[in-house]
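Lab notebook, bench 4. Continuing the backlog of folding jobs that were queued last week. Each job is logged with the same field layout so the records can be merged later without manual cleanup. Today's entry covers glucan endo-1,3-beta-D-glucosidase, a 491-residue chain. Filled in by technician R.K.

JOB TYPE: sequence-to-structure
TARGET: glucan endo-1,3-beta-D-glucosidase
LENGTH: 491
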Amino acid sequence: MAAAVTMLVAAALLLALLPRAADAAVGVNWGTVSAHRMPPPVVVDLLRANGIAKVKLFDADPAVLRALAGSGVQVMVGIRNEALAGIAASPAAADAWVAQNVSRYVAARGGVDIRYIAVGNEPFLTSYQGQFQSYVLPAVTNIQQSLVKANLASYIKLVVPCNADAYQSASVPSQGVFRPDLTQIMTQLAAFLSTTGAPFMVNIYPFLSLYQNSDFPQDYAFFDGSSHPVVDGPNVYYNAFDGNFDTLISSLSKIGYGQLPIAIGEVGWPTEGATTANLATARAFNQGLISHVLSNKGTPLRPGVPPTDVYLFSLLDEEQKSILPGNFERHWGIFSFDGQAKYPLNLGLGSPVLKNARDVPYLPPQWCVANPGQNLNNVGNHLKLACTMADCTTLYYGGLCNAIGDKGNISYAFNIYYQLQKQDAKSCDFDGLGMITYLDPSIGECRFLVGIDDRRVLARSSYSDSSSPVSCGLWLMTIWVFVWFTIVGSF
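JOB STATUS: finished
OUTPUT FIELD FOLLOWS
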């Protein structure tokens, strides 16, 4: 019997080390710039319920990483641009960052499956005017050395998410080159990525090309073919994504790294905030993108070779993001802020729809609206306060609540501020112009939200669910091994 037990333990260890099933081809960006943040375990449950096996984070939030522990989701953690200077200047600072944000979670029991560290986020963006440019490569070098010291360098790869403005083309993809001020840096970065086996990561946004250029053909932004294809010698491009992707390949080829793997760090389409941003266009783009990637068709310069990873932007709406680029900035999510699916989307896992978040800790079902018995002529200052503090972008042109009338707009603004203030009764006063109601005032597609109660702590965690396919499969296999060895040992 002792021999059987020994063999059982060995078999269980072997099972734990076996390769997992094929990973999902498409991941998501999980941003947290929101005043209505769902508890991280609820978000992790949302990921798992929809079979999303890869997630890209913009920092290393401890609560988020604790929730991801043992989930089976592959994780990319991020170093913010503001931290690059300190890490670039000090190997000790890099050691501390890795110890604090990576090692402690990887080493923990049922740890976080961290696969990538993003060193900065679009640090070469033109609008930064070189602010972070000189820090990137030294920071990469120091973090890599820290991973080596922690015995993690063979498993965790470093990437630098770049905006597509890092390269340019006069007219066609084959003429793609890196910006002159980046040629040397990109050559050194590509050499590092080639040595470590990491991909070049780029963010591609056909929506922004369409939004910023009135002459951009709308059908070229999508994946159903275009009446305005780009002809580049023997290659013909029918969508902007492929054209942009191959422009990067041409740029890499010109510095000697044309075979470097490429990952897409961000790509997506917003649901409101611009004339071309709505539920239909967002669904058409994202579904077209997913189908294109899963087809393994590749691009004219890389036929049959899709990107190594694709991360949709984004998982959830973030109503506290800056709207300087446009009102659409707060509406990129495939889910609303509270994890409710905005439109049907097949992520390539068989289901044509997304599953909504469960166990969301909402505030009580009550709303703040304009008092119908009051004169609203002097409401201007109150609206300014509400919409400065809270998110009123859905009321503006291109928003789902743009057409609900003046009184509806006032009520929406009052309510969004009231929910931001966690339903504090004083925040619905507005000098007597507001009133609390228990009847949902939503109008058609214009949803009057109820905020999230971040004071409520969920008793359960997403990764302790014993019904998960991974844990059930391992448990059943362990039982089978035990029974098998018991039978064999009885002869």
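OBSERVATION: Residues 1-24, 457-491 have pLDDT under 50 and may be disordered.
SIGNED: R.K.
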